[in-house]
Amino acid sequence: MKPISVPKHIEAALEKPCEKYVLRLYVSGMTERSRRSVLNIKAVCKENLQGKYDLEVVDIHQKPSLAKDEQIVATPTLIRQLPLPLRRIVGDLSDREGVLFGLDIKRKTGCLDSTGNPDI
Question: Which of 35, 57, 59, 76 has the fewest CB atoms below 10 angstroms from its CB?
Fold first, then answer.
């Protein structure tokens, strides 16, 4: 059986715990909905990821090949590239709880978890 070739960045991501979230937001021009989605995801990241993220905003009109490669059929679409597995959220990202759930990010609560560590 032929071994499967895994890209190096994915292989590296699998070997160590994720230190950063890598997010890509696809928008369609600078419409009100696009602006709202950018502001919403920036707020979620600032409040919950404390600088441990890379966010790229891609306008599908300017870079249609990226949208085609990712099979984007609706905008705005947010893709969490890392940590794996990939996750997608479609919409203006105004439902904060839904975005946190979709990205698998625990909201900062100030509470302690079962081990006595801050629940973030």
Answer: 35
